[in-house]
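User: Hello! My lab partner asked me to get a predicted holo structure for this protein. The small molecule is magnesium ion, SMILES included with the sequence. Please write out the structure tokens.
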Amino acid sequence: DFEYALENDVKPAFGRSDESLNRLMTGGITVWGPEVTEILDQGTLLAEVVKNPENRGFRSAVLAGSPKTGKTSLAAQIAKGSDFPFIKVVSPEDTVGFSESAKCASLKKAFEDAKRSKLSVLLIDNLERLIDYHPVGPRYSNLVIQALLVLLNSPPPVGHRLLILATSSDRSFLRDMGLMVAFGSVIDIPRLSTAAQIMNVIGESNIFSDEQLGAINHKLEELVDGKKFGIGIKHLLELIESARQCEADYRVSMLMSMMENISLNLF
Amino acid sequence: DFEYALENDVKPAFGRSDESLNRLMTGGITVWGPEVTEILDQGTLLAEVVKNPENRGFRSAVLAGSPKTGKTSLAAQIAKGSDFPFIKVVSPEDTVGFSESAKCASLKKAFEDAKRSKLSVLLIDNLERLIDYHPVGPRYSNLVIQALLVLLNSPPPVGHRLLILATSSDRSFLRDMGLMVAFGSVIDIPRLSTAAQIMNVIGESNIFSDEQLGAINHKLEELVDGKKFGIGIKHLLELIESARQCEADYRVSMLMSMMENISLNLF
Amino acid sequence: DFEYALENDVKPAFGRSDESLNRLMTGGITVWGPEVTEILDQGTLLAEVVKNPENRGFRSAVLAGSPKTGKTSLAAQIAKGSDFPFIKVVSPEDTVGFSESAKCASLKKAFEDAKRSKLSVLLIDNLERLIDYHPVGPRYSNLVIQALLVLLNSPPPVGHRLLILATSSDRSFLRDMGLMVAFGSVIDIPRLSTAAQIMNVIGESNIFSDEQLGAINHKLEELVDGKKFGIGIKHLLELIESARQCEADYRVSMLMSMMENISLNLF
Amino acid sequence: DFEYALENDVKPAFGRSDESLNRLMTGGITVWGPEVTEILDQGTLLAEVVKNPENRGFRSAVLAGSPKTGKTSLAAQIAKGSDFPFIKVVSPEDTVGFSESAKCASLKKAFEDAKRSKLSVLLIDNLERLIDYHPVGPRYSNLVIQALLVLLNSPPPVGHRLLILATSSDRSFLRDMGLMVAFGSVIDIPRLSTAAQIMNVIGESNIFSDEQLGAINHKLEELVDGKKFGIGIKHLLELIESARQCEADYRVSMLMSMMENISLNLF
Amino acid sequence: DFEYALENDVKPAFGRSDESLNRLMTGGITVWGPEVTEILDQGTLLAEVVKNPENRGFRSAVLAGSPKTGKTSLAAQIAKGSDFPFIKVVSPEDTVGFSESAKCASLKKAFEDAKRSKLSVLLIDNLERLIDYHPVGPRYSNLVIQALLVLLNSPPPVGHRLLILATSSDRSFLRDMGLMVAFGSVIDIPRLSTAAQIMNVIGESNIFSDEQLGAINHKLEELVDGKKFGIGIKHLLELIESARQCEADYRVSMLMSMMENISLNLF
Amino acid sequence: DFEYALENDVKPAFGRSDESLNRLMTGGITVWGPEVTEILDQGTLLAEVVKNPENRGFRSAVLAGSPKTGKTSLAAQIAKGSDFPFIKVVSPEDTVGFSESAKCASLKKAFEDAKRSKLSVLLIDNLERLIDYHPVGPRYSNLVIQALLVLLNSPPPVGHRLLILATSSDRSFLRDMGLMVAFGSVIDIPRLSTAAQIMNVIGESNIFSDEQLGAINHKLEELVDGKKFGIGIKHLLELIESARQCEADYRVSMLMSMMENISLNLF
Ligand SMILES: Nc1ncnc2c1ncn2[C@@H]1O[C@H](COP(=O)(O)OP(=O)(O)OP(=O)(O)O)[C@@H](O)[C@H]1O
Ligand SMILES: Nc1ncnc2c1ncn2[C@@H]1O[C@H](COP(=O)(O)OP(=O)(O)OP(=O)(O)O)[C@@H](O)[C@H]1O
Ligand SMILES: Nc1ncnc2c1ncn2[C@@H]1O[C@H](COP(=O)(O)OP(=O)(O)OP(=O)(O)O)[C@@H](O)[C@H]1O
Ligand SMILES: Nc1ncnc2c1ncn2[C@@H]1O[C@H](COP(=O)(O)OP(=O)(O)OP(=O)(O)O)[C@@H](O)[C@H]1O
Ligand SMILES: Nc1ncnc2c1ncn2[C@@H]1O[C@H](COP(=O)(O)OP(=O)(O)OP(=O)(O)O)[C@@H](O)[C@H]1O
Ligand SMILES: Nc1ncnc2c1ncn2[C@@H]1O[C@H](COP(=O)(O)OP(=O)(O)OP(=O)(O)O)[C@@H](O)[C@H]1O
Ligand SMILES: [Mg+2]
Ligand SMILES: [Mg+2]
Ligand SMILES: [Mg+2]
Ligand SMILES: [Mg+2]
Ligand SMILES: [Mg+2]
Ligand SMILES: [Mg+2]
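Assistant: Hello! Below are the structure tokens for the protein in complex with magnesium ion.
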């Protein structure tokens, strides 16, 4: 039975791909605001559209947000939450230093693998790196982006269903490179921008006393007030790690000085 | 008999090529307006010009329209409707990651195959991808476009007849790349732009009650009124799929919010 | 006898080259105006300059005109009319997808073949394609154009005589690429621009009644009047083919609507 | 035991890498001002953040300062001071004339080596040279920078800890190339800019009499006064070497004339 | 005897090189004005500077003039007139389609050959072609020009003497490419610009009656008067060849119409 | 004994390198002014800084001056005058037509050779040619300049001493390419610009009578007066050679007309 053989062939790969999904999940998801839940809900809806036998079963979406905003973790969470039996990860780590054509071949292979299973998620982490994009020039691998544009437009065989999820750090990159149109939809991943959102994360860290938390909250409200302030969740977690290393008395001032640098765009 | 050998040689290929034609036809053609019939009529006329023994039997045309407007399906429909015994498809899917010269060779081969038969259609889907075009730079494969320009200008052997159909997403791309002149004619594929056209498609979906259809019609008329609104047929079908996934009560508002995003050019 | 061997070696090639000359002659030459005769006369004069033993016997000329104006057919006609025993054709069709250096080698070979015979015409069809020219960039094969510039400046051995004829779609291309100076002379191939010229061709087609011809003539005079209208002979013949396919009653209006598109530069 | 094998495998490399660390330390560190101590303290904090088992154990920082300001020595000092058992050095000297892909492979290998140990420092000296950056063009190896961007964003296996230190001569290079964001933090390495700082170094050289030192101090105060003067520690040590070579009587005037050239930006 | 071996080795090459010198001399030198004599005198002086044992014996000069002004013939004439025992010709014809590195190798070989003889002329015809120069881009072979710049600056072994002569169509090309400085001197080759100069050449052709010559002279004086008119000797000889082909009565008017085209810059 | 083996290995190379040093010295050094002595003194000082065991023993300098100002001869003279036991020459002549990577390898080898000896001079003649620099584009070998920048920043092993001397025709080239900073110091090589300086060289030639010398001096003073005149020593020696070839009576006027051309920037 051909179908059977296919799934047989796919099974061993499944374990491997699951492991590479875990590699992308470097920690849990803190729900620092309703924005987080909403993103996960959009992912769930997409997965259901793909699953529904009345539909054609071929969708793609890209999670777009500034660096260190949690894109990769959220995409992985959506993939995992979809409960699709086959999840394939395309991560730039796996093709470091590959030639353009080797990258193409690896991308093509990932799509083929995903299409061979009846119900798959294909997670492409970091589109910029996939196509070797660099803004100075700009440079990019035309070979790889051409392959991507073709593959994003090639439905799986009849009866097979495929959800493609990708991440990218820059909406204008997506638009300029023609990837905005090529993906069916874009899910924006925001930075934390209010004192309350940030406090939700700081509170979980258990390194500040209640008094210190009050002080931080107060200073954050001042900092944020009237300005356009924003910090990615991954960046915030790093600052908290650095603060933890200081002696207790210096933690608040150190954390706040790093926050100020961010608000001054010094970093 | 040489002629016989030729056709013999071609036959097995025929089956294969027919299959690849089906691959391009991902669904039926909804006649959402007289524009659709007119496009198919233009295709029929071209096929007849090629067949007519009084004529030279060598024509090419490109179907040009925005992304997701149904170009590929319409080109396939015209090819199928021509009833020519040999139909060859050049699809970017078949040459993903090929080197420029491999792409050239494959294109040349397709033309040779098509010319060997007495009466052929050659369908080239997605000219942008064929020549690896990207607007950033811009980049394109000069090797492939040179080959294309030469092949488009080389008639089949005396007595053999060839109709070349191609698709492209961008009229200005065609003009800039010199493909407008190289193809004998351009057939424009429009977007749906009136409430009535859109309702023709939504009505067929069977997911809205009559009351909901009325509401949608009303809102669409407001949305479209006075603005330049347009949505490709493939895009519209995707929105309907997403709406189907919502609970019945939210379907109308979800569909309309997606329509508004389009009208605001947010997507 | 060395000379004898040379000619012997050349003979078989002759047959072949004659065949490839025929390939360029896709139909007869309609004398739609005195311009046509004049062009052929200029060709005859060049051939005589080359043949005259008092002269050095090395000349080159390029036929330049817009796409579809009949350049290739006229160049082939001049070559054939020269009655030179050896005619070599360099056609882009023969080197589709070749690498730059393979194109060079093939060009060099063609010149060598031509110079080995005592009296040769070398016909280079479509200089743009020969050098892989594309205006976007612009791109061209520097390797091939350098070879061409050198070969155009290298006379055949003493006593041997060589006429080089080429075609090109664009005078400004020729000037910019330094080919204007490299060729000894440029022969301009015009478009048909008066109602009378066009009627000469339409009349020959035998698809319109006398009444229809009168109507067309009248409408053409209106169309052309005061505007800069022009249509290549090859383009015109295509329009007539399309018109033939219509039912008799629609032919005139179809022909005229296509003519109007041309005058509006829509094509 | 896998862990054991890993460390076994790493041990021999350790000796070698330590040797290459010494190669970067071409002399001691003179504390010419509190700035020096502060830089070393920042390094110590980073190392502790990485070591702390409560943290994720993956950090990177770049030491940025003008040419000849002591970046390499300070980075080496921080690495040595961290007391991490494995220190890997990526120095441009080791890949002179390598192809881009060989450079990539060598970079990837260095990261893999570092990640295999439980607690490592990876020191990348001179980012400009690593990516073959040259401002005329500009030119850079996109292959290498893409690899670097990916590797900087790939944490070591769970339980393994990695501190990445790099040096670069130009903050705007870092920002333009997207390396500012890719590295977690930037440590600025200043030039000596006051007479007192410079005298701290000159005093240690033992080549000037006390009277001469007084004269130099006086002249330096004049030179620096009101201008933006700055000299890297490595540059200053070179000037002192040149002065030593002069006869005692000319030393002061020679040193000061070289200092003036610097302040006039003649060098 | 080493010297002897060298010369022995060189002798056979000599014959060959002499033959290639003849290939450049496609006809005699008409002294159409004192300019011609002066050019030849400058060549003679250079040869004597090189021969004089009191001098270092290494000089280079480039003959620069518009296309078809006789540069190649004059350079060949100077080389021949020098009576140096070894003359080596570097002609673009010999390296058509060569790769950049093959061209380099061939250039290097030519210099080595020339330096091995005690007294050599090295004639490099057409510098633009040697370095594959094209103004669109511009493009050129950096590999070849770098080789040329090095070789032009490397004297022959002590006691050996070398004169390098080159031709080029464009003074501004020479200046921009740094060849003006690299060659020791530039000899300008002018176009014929007065009626008298032109009549000197036309008179020699024996195809016009005295009366016709008078008429031509008169018309030329009108044409040239007050304008900046110029025609290269090679171009003029071609016009005369074309005129010869006409019937006697049309010759004058044909010649003059071609002259007018030149003065209108239509060619 | 390792040290012994090293020196043994180096010895044979020594002879060879000395020979290549002589190749650069195409004549003696005329002291046409105190500028010449000063340049040689700067070289001597550098050599002593490198030799002094109290210093680190690693210095580099570049001699920068217009074409034909004597840079190569002066660098060679400094190298010879240093009396270092090992002198290695990197001359563009030795790598004509080499690929970029072959040039890199050869450069790297030269540095390794030089570092293996205890006391070496490495003379790099003509930096522009070493890195295949051409201002049109501009073009340069990034591979070679990256290698050079790394090698210039890598000290020899402890106890070994290395002086690097280079020549270049253009200060702004050095600055733009980042070579100004990479070399420790720049020694400017001037042109002769006063009548007295020029007369010092002309006087040595013995081809003018005292009366002629007086006339030349007078004319030179006029020529130079108030203008910015300059001529390289190598260029001046060439003019004198040309003048020698004239008959005695014409020598002065010929020399002066060549001088005027230079002052008019015609050459
Ligand atoms: N609500 C959240 N959303 C995303 N990540 C979260 C959230 N809460 C906590 N995290 C943690 O934040 C980190 C986000 O890192 P992640 O690599 O996903 O960010 P990223 O945007 O992909 O970064 P980069 O731009 O560097 O690729 C993870 O460690 C994750 O466990
Ligand atoms: N009138 C119609 N014309 C074209 N397609 C239609 C029409 N009615 C329904 N369809 C359906 O719409 C879809 C059109 O998809 P198709 O791939 O042809 O669009 P496309 O313009 O080629 O898209 P893309 O720009 O992504 O290549 C098909 O699934 C087809 O069945
Ligand atoms: N007077 C004429 N001159 C040229 N061609 C003519 C003339 N009369 C009829 N024809 C026909 O017109 C057609 C001209 O086609 P041809 O390929 O020569 O044009 P072209 O200018 O080379 O086109 P392209 O720009 O596509 O290369 C031929 O079929 C030829 O038989
Ligand atoms: N406080 C200091 N900081 C750094 N280096 C110092 C200090 N004091 C003395 N030094 C010495 O100064 C020299 C600094 O050289 P180093 O190669 O580190 O500079 P660099 O900035 O890396 O130079 P480059 O820009 O050329 O790479 C070393 O020899 C070091 O021993
Ligand atoms: N005074 C003259 N100087 C040069 N050539 C002359 C002269 N008189 C007659 N001739 C003839 O003119 C022709 C000059 O051709 P030549 O190839 O030397 O010109 P060119 O400038 O090198 O042309 P191109 O620019 O095409 O290389 C030769 O046939 C030569 O015999
Ligand atoms: N004072 C001097 N300085 C340098 N060269 C001198 C001096 N006096 C005489 N010469 C002679 O001048 C010539 C200088 O030639 P050299 O090749 O060194 O110049 P260069 O500047 O390197 O030229 P290029 O720019 O072509 O490389 C040599 O022949 C040398 O013997
Ligand atoms: Mg990520
Ligand atoms: Mg399509
Ligand atoms: Mg043609
Ligand atoms: Mg450093
Ligand atoms: Mg010539
Ligand atoms: Mg020199």
